[in-house]
């Protein structure tokens, strides 16, 4: 199981510094979100050539506001700029965001994703598309710099999304998804779907909040506060409910260095390919958490 970092940056210089540190520490992958701050792909293209030897992943680019032809152009341009080290994570986002903030209709999400992948995947592999979907249409080709197609990871949580991802994409990246759910739903569902479709085994990347601390109660309070939104958004709430958890603070990996290391090792038994740690807490707690993650590198 690979150990990766999930970072949250507010500026390109901060992103470059964090990425370089992770690379020097021996991490092979670094994931960054696409929420309301920097555009992740633009930031990666800006700094990628200055920080070699580490893959960069988006976790995740929302599909609704970007047509798949536009995303294919941007992703391939970024892939060329960073010498083929992009992991392209994409996702539906959430109805309150899509409708409430962007004014778009969050309808038939499974159909939307199916149409989206039917356009995006061929374009990433330098193929023309002529696809008229029920929701998304794409016709034409793009002439970006020639480069290897980046693997596509879908933020797939529920059974239908996992099956579709296994049939059409390269893997999934999860968040707020617990160990039992990963073992009993996520990994078997996506792998079985890929096998039935005659595709190679998809990669499963699982993200968890992590804090090494000697004050568990304070860390739990911090997790409840900092990650509260994830207990309210329907898709993440469903994952927490499936796990029987009250909130994000119950999913976060919190404890001593030994306790955290053992928890992460235990998660490997689910069959995931990569554990992505999102460090939180005080500055000292984040440093202690990073030391544990470094100790787990293969």
Describe the structure.
Helices cover 45% and strands 19% of the residues. With 298 residues, it is α/β, with parallel strands linked by helices. The protein folds into two domains: 1-155, TIM Barrel, CATH 3.20.20.30; 171-298, TIM Barrel, CATH 3.20.20. The strands form two sheets. The chain has an eight-stranded parallel β-barrel, surrounded by seven helices. It has a two-stranded antiparallel ribbon with strand order 6-7. Strand 6 (129-132) and strand 7 (137-140) form a beta hairpin. Helix 6 packs across helix 7 (179-196). The longest helix is centred in the middle third of the chain and has 18 residues, at 179-196. It is globular, with a radius of gyration of 19 Å.
Give the structure's gist in a few sentences.
With 298 residues, this protein is an alpha/beta fold.
Largest sheet: 8 strands, parallel, barrel
Looking at the structure, the CATH topology of the largest domain is: TIM Barrel
Low-confidence stretches: none
What average pLDDT do the residues reach?
97
**β-strand number:** 12
Q: How much helical structure, as a percent, in the residues?
A: 40-55%
Tally of individual domains: 2
CATH-scheme architecture of the largest domain: Alpha-Beta Barrel
The level 1 CATH classification of the largest domain is Alpha Beta
What multimeric state do the chains show?
Answer: single chain
C-alpha-based Rg, rounded: 19 Å
Fourth-level CATH superfamily of the largest domain: Luciferase-like domain
Compressed to H and E, one letter per element, the order equals: EHEHEEHEHHEEEHEHEHHHEHEH
Biggest sheet: strand arrangement: 1-2-3-5-8-9-10-12
Figure out the total of helices: 12
Terminal-residue CA separation: 8 Å
Principal-axis shape equals globular
Roughly what fraction of the amino acids lie in strands?
15-25%
**Structural class of the secondary elements?**
alpha/beta
């Amino acid at each position: 199981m690979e150990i990766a970092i999930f970072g949250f940056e507010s500026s390109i210089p901060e992103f470059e510094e964090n990425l370089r540190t992770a690379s020097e520490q021996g991490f092979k992958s670094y994931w960054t979100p696409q929420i309301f701050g920097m555009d992740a792909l633009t930031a990666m293209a800006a700094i990628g050539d200055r920080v070699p030897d580490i893959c960069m992943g988006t976790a995740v680019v929302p599909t609704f506001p970007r047509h798949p032809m536009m995303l294919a152009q941007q992703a391939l341009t970024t892939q060329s700029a960073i010498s083929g080290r992009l992991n392209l994570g994409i996702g539906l986002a959430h109805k309150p965001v899509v409708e409430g903030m962007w004014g778009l209709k969050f309808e038939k999400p499974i159909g939307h994703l199916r149409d989206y992948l039917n356009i995006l995947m061929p374009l990433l592999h330098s193929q023309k598309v002529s696809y008229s979907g029920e929701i998304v249409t794409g016709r034409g080709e793009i002439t970006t710099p020639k480069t290897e197609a980046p693997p596509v990871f879908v933020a797939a949580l529920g059974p239908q999304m996992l099956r579709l991802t296994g049939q059409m994409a390269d893997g999934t990246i999860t968040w707020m998804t617990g160990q039992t759910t990963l073992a009993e739903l996520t990994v078997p569902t996506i792998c079985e779907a890929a096998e039935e479709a005659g595709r190679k085994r998809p990669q499963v990347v699982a993200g968890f909040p992590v804090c090494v601390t000697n004050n568990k109660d304070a860390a739990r309070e911090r997790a409840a506060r900092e990650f509260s939104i994830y207990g309210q958004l329907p898709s993440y709430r469903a994952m927490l409910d499936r796990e029987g958890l009250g909130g994000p603070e119950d999913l976060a990996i919190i404890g001593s260095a030994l306790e955290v290391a053992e928890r992460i090792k235990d998660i490997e038994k689910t069959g995931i390919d990569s554990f992505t740690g999102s460090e939180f807490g005080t500055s000292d707690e984040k440093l202690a958490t990073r030391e544990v993650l470094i100790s787990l590198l293969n």
